[in-house]
Amino acid sequence: MPLGRWSGIAHPELDEITVDDVLHALADPTRRAIIRLLQAEGDRPCGTFGLPVAASTLSHHFRALRKGGLIRQYDEGRQRMNTLRTAELEKRFPGLVDAVLANAG
Amino acid sequence: MPLGRWSGIAHPELDEITVDDVLHALADPTRRAIIRLLQAEGDRPCGTFGLPVAASTLSHHFRALRKGGLIRQYDEGRQRMNTLRTAELEKRFPGLVDAVLANAG
């Protein structure tokens, strides 16, 4: 997926992400469900997560995940796709995301 | 310190604490500074942390730490003391608090 595809969407650089951003992003079961589905099944469009929340709420959750450095979003045709940044984040905050996911129901 | 001393202060039972409560409690540098000082120097009264925040703000932070299961508070004479629950919390969420503190500035 070419970088240009997410040029119009705001993503923090790795060194701009704070631990508080990450904790905030992870402190919600819907957001953790999004991460888990991406881990299990790879990139997918926003509308296909099958979560029982309103579209506007989901949009808020994707924004929090983007701000926390957990995901990148890019447009593919008419769909907004989501891809994990957790490997990247692991370099900045080793063990953090895994420790949260391992402990969260 | 006898249990009776914190009978008037609300503390969640270990099994009532959610990972979201813990993440919320840890997602703030002032609250992490409180935890670090307790780890380094043991129980101490609320007014002695030397943090550059207003008393009302500090009171909010102590409440968030109590709700997240990070500390217990008890009264000793006219002072409200703080003691860590991190050993207890480690049983419920292994590695979580350490992973956050290790990654936070």
TrEMBL record, chains A, B:
Residues 11-104 form the HTH arsR-type domain. InterPro entries: ArsR-like_HTH, HTH_ArsR_DNA-bd_dom, HTH_MetalResp_TranReg, WH-like_DNA-bd_sf, WH_DNA-bd_sf. The keyword Transcription regulation applies. Transmembrane segments: none annotated. GO terms for molecular function: DNA binding; DNA-binding transcription factor activity. PROSITE patterns: HTH_ARSR_2. It comes from the Bacteria. This is ArsR family transcriptional regulator. Keywords: DNA-binding, Transcription, Transcription regulation. The keyword Protein transport does not apply. SMART domains: HTH_ARSR.
